[in-house]
Amino acid sequence: MRSKQRTVSLEVTRHIWRNWKTSREKPALTFLELKHLAQHVNQRCLNADVDPREIDLFSLLDSTLNYYENLNYLDMYLKQLGIGNGEIEELGTEKLRQKHMALNARYKKLKQRIKNLKSQNKRLRAKLKKNGRVQKREPLKKKQN
Predict the structure, then answer these.
(1) Where are the domains of the chain?
(2) For the whole prediction, is pTM greater than 0.70?
(3) The pLDDT value given to residue 3
């Protein structure tokens, strides 16, 4: 399925690019940008279980607009058709929330570990001081520019 998706977007990209190149105006998009827009539409359609060939990219894309303007227009068009990425965004938000919670838990563990190491270091220094083995160290000097 993945190779078919790439083939469809590549066919569409080549067709549109050939037509734009034969026109008198120089396209504002590069071939790679055009290819990425086609892949974007394909991916969104496949995520919504819609056949990407039903979308007429040739009529939707404008050669005078830049990549971001075309992308914005395509996203608005797809949302009107009900091919939004709301589920994907929600899934992404949930994954981010889980990752944040995991990192927060790890941070708390590390903070507790540092606290334990500091108290252990303090006890060892006190023990060494009691035995007369503590040597005073000079603080590190800062480098001057």
Answers:
(1) 2-80, 88-131
(2) no
(3) 53
